[in-house]
Amino acid sequence: MNNLIITEDIMQEHEVKGYFEILRESVIRSRLTMTAVFFKVANSSQGTDIERNQVNHQISAFLKSKIRKTDLLFQLADGMHWGIFFLQSSEVEVKAFLKRIFAILTQEREFQQIELKASITEIRNNSVNFETLLDKNKHKLADDEQPTWSVEQVTDYRVQPTEQAKVSIIEQNEIFRKVLETTLKNLDIHHYTLDVSTYEDGYSFLQSDSYKTGHVHLVVMNDILPRKNGLEILHILREMPNEKKFIIYMMSERNSESATLNAYEGGVDEYIVKPFNLRLLEAKIKQTFARFWL
Amino acid sequence: MIKLSIPLLLTVCGVLLVVLFLFTIYILVQRKREIRFADVRDIFLQNSAQHWYNYLINDEIFSVVLVPRGRAQVAAIETIFSSYLKNITNEKVEHKIKEFSNLYLKKFYEKDLSSKRWSIRMNALYRIADFQIEALLDTCQQFENTKISEEEYFQLLKIYSIFQPELFIEKIEESSVNYSESEYRRLFVLLEDDVFIRLFEDFNSWTKKIQFAAIDTAAVKRNMQYIDQLKQLVTHEMPEIKIRALKGLYEIGVIDEIDPYVPFVTSDMWEIRLMVAKIFKHVPLNYTYAYLEQLLQDENWWVRSQAAKTIVEKREGIAKLQQFLESSNDLYAIEMAQETIVRKRGSK
Amino acid sequence: MKVFLDFCMWFFGGFILFYMLIVIVSYCAMFVIAMLAMRKRYKLDPSEYDDAHIDAFYSKPVSLLVPAYNEEIGVVDTVYSLLNLRYPQTEIIIINDGSTDSTLQTVIEHFRMKPVDKIVRTNIPTKQVKQIYESEIYKNCILVDKENGGKADALNVGINVSQYPYFCSIDGDSILDEKSLLRVMKPIILSDGEVIAAGGNIRIANGAKMQLGSVTETHLPNNHLVIMQIIEYARAFLMGRIALSKYNLVLIISGAFSVFSKEWAVEAGGYSTDIIGEDMELVVNIHRLIRKKKEKKRIEFVPDPVCWTEAPQSLGVLRNQRRRWHQGLFESLWKHKTMTLNPKYGLIGLLSFPYFWLVECLGPLVELGGYIYIVVAFFLGKIYYEVAIILLLLFVIYGVIFSIASILFEAWILNTYPRPRDLLRMILLAFTEIFWYRPLTLFWRCEGLLGFVLRRSDWGNMKRVGIGEKEKSV
């Protein structure tokens, strides 16, 4: 093992650790899933050192040719494992990638010496550190009885952290405000806890300062409101530096084309004409939150 | 002539002051009663709001708490129901409100209908339509035979149109009252499609106002069914009907052929030319450009302006207008084209 | 000499008494008509009707014109209240009439106005428009910057810029109730355009809690002068507007809040720039046009749409306002004097004009004469006591009783000031009316008459005071 020559032109385990920590944090911040894949040579016991060396080179070169520019390929210190971090990709995409390259490897004659198996880890939280990630994957691939081209999975880190999201309802009609509040409080959105507050006019919402925190913030409001109406609030929120955190739903009695266009041009995510279907609203909100995580 | 004397005037003053004094007391007592009424209403509103939510939205079982005792509680329920109906569409909720109103609110409105006050009768009629209290249909029909005002009759028509479209059409035919267009529209827009189509079938037998209202309603309903009807009316002899039908077609926004509209480009009436310029918004520019260029040089400001707008909205519109600028020598048209281009660019 | 004085006293006494009786009878008649019309609506649920008309399908689009001359404090709130109107299709056009304060900057900053190129049709010739701006926040909100030319000229520019078939003029320091536009448009929509202009009811905002264009609570203000004006507004509303409107006799709809059909207003020549009471002038011109074209059109006063406006709090400002109004009224009536008793103009000529001449315009002169008569009579001795006392009693009926009746009736139907305390305060204050408020306003109005007779050439100066002063016609 000691005299294995490590391929020079790809990144090595010790170099990647720092990157990994940055990537892991950005997963949380940008809500973009990252998926790690580890490969192991399935027929490592066969052949001579030189042959193995050649195969290793070939594997490195092959993998390098297949990844995207945003993906990070590296070789582990033991020389028998390779890892790739696929940024902004979920397990599904990575599985498709594996299927594609495995097909190439099995079909093309030039690669007939390469036999691989892989394990996939989808990462949506930051409770994982580099060493454990490596250990877990190595462990998954340690079993020599595993068939070649098999794909294992580490599922420990796929659950995104539960995040707090703010919900502000700004509606003048007291009864309907209460209806919306109850409905949204009971809304079960995966991985989010909703912190619902209600306001009867635009001014009291702006006074509350609750919109200044960094949380994801769903604002459900009427277009016409006493003391600062909906369009102005929309404008204020969309002018803020981190305006992307706001999901803005505007409700309106005005069913005219121009009013709708105005609202969308001003930056609402949904324009809902009253009366509307509550269930549909719930579904829309769920869908909006679901889209937040890749 | 009555002699104007001090005692007489003093008596008049005195009597008037006493009357006003009594009126003041009446108003103050009335105020007190209103405040008490509002208190009862608000308490009921507070206490039952959650129950109503659970019953209407969460499908929980009906609770006796919800049954109103007295007027004030009815007023609270009215507020709750109209808030739900105004903001939410949900068949189940509507059905439950209907069911509840027919059971528990019916007797209140029945009594209101025989009230001496016009305003109270009107309120009752509004609610019967809003909450769909079908159980009062017979009462309404009896009510129609009493001496009622035009406004009340209008509300009755609305109620008939919801519960008994047949009767509604009948009443409209025989009705001696002449409502305004916007009132007819308010009635027609509530009609089911099949009833509305029937209304359209004997189009020529209706009065002008009904015809106009029917065309406008057809446009608003945006139903493909009505396009053919409107297309036929485009060749109607009355210009007003022509214009409205064109407007309706523009609003529906589905133009499958331009041949029927081409003759209107040279119509004598600028309103018709204007409508054509609008309709061409819904057709690709290469079919319509020749006509639009003609309209761009129209003698009427509105037609020119609309033609320019229609062209510039299209993808290759600005280029076409610029091409036009180079070749044309119609000053008015050039000015319009220039301004429209500037404005379009400014808005980007 | 004594004989002559006797004759004068009897003659004037008789004349004033006769006049007062006529006025009282006509007010009574109008009060009864108003009562019958309003009583019907007691307890009617207005929300039903309002909601039915919020859809663009039923209503007609309206351009809202806000002329502003040195209104940096009020205009932002006014525009906020317009933005919150429950009405499907409106555009807001603020016209800066060459203000010398920072009205322009305030509006530009507040609503993120950006200069735009806009094609304007000149329907009515006006002063030069400098620049048109459009709000980045509200696409339907436009600011027009123009050279100073007075309120009428500013409104004409607004009419030229507007794109909708109806326009509504709102003073740059008033606040509209969210449903007011819907309600003032109601007669226009329901009549299929037979009603071509409609005016709304004005209420005094002093004492009401207001913030960012919304009225949250209404209390009676503490200032007695303002309370007297509130009573006066209620009177004018019940004994005048409603009855006149019923028979299409309205000559004045307040410029602070009124809607006109653009087509008719333009044909009538828009607002006249050379006259003080431009709102009355337009209404009279439209009436003329209606008669000329022999069309069946109406101008209506709508009792409930609410426009809140600030009333003068000091005697000085109030005096200016009343002098101006009265001079304006006289001027307009004089300009159209040929319509008086002219059967060609139907009831407008036969009833409206004589009424405005006798009761509204020259009334103050006679009434003030009455006050002087009472004073003189008491000095002259007991033979005139009887006439003086009769006259005094008539003043009581005319001043006190009518006022209290109006307060009570208003309270019963509209309930503007819900607290019983407020109601009682108003009634008590009404008793004092004939001793101070009435003579004062009479005197000011007579000053206005005098102003018309003497200071014709001075109008220019008056006009430049412009809309900055807190003035609304009742």
From TrEMBL, chain A:
Query: Which GO BP terms, alphabetically?
Result: phosphorelay signal transduction system
- Domain Response regulatory: from-to ranges: 166-289
The record's listing under Pfam families reads:
Response_reg
Q: Which residues form a coiled coil?
A: none
Q: State the protein's name.
A: Response regulatory domain-containing protein
The species is: Lysinibacillus xylanilyticus
Q: What is the lineage of its organism?
A: Bacteria, Bacillati, Bacillota, Bacilli, Bacillales
Automatic annotation (TrEMBL), chain B:
Q: Could you tell me which Gene3D superfamilies the record lists for this protein?
A: Leucine-rich Repeat Variant (1.25.10.10)
Q: Name one Pfam family in it.
A: HEAT
Q: What keywords does the record list, in alphabetical order?
A: Membrane, Repeat, Transmembrane, Transmembrane helix
**Transmembrane stretches, start-end:** 6-29
- Quick one: signal sequence residues? none
| InterPro entries named among the record's database cross-references | ARM-like (IPR011989), ARM-type_fold (IPR016024), HEAT (IPR000357)
What protein name is recorded for this chain? HEAT repeat domain-containing protein
Organism of derivation:
Lysinibacillus xylanilyticus
UniProtKB/TrEMBL annotation, chain C:
- Keyword Transmembrane helix in the entry? The reply is yes
Q: Which terms in the Gene Ontology molecular function aspect does this entry carry? A: glycosyltransferase activity
Q: Which residues cross the membrane?
A: 12-37, 355-380, 387-414
Report the domain of life of the source organism: Bacteria
The alphabetical list of record keywords is: Glycosyltransferase, Membrane, Transferase, Transmembrane, Transmembrane helix
Question: InterPro entries, from UniProt?
Answer: Nucleotide-diphossugar_trans
The UniProt family comment states:
Belongs to the glycosyltransferase 2 family.
Entry protein name? Glycosyl transferase
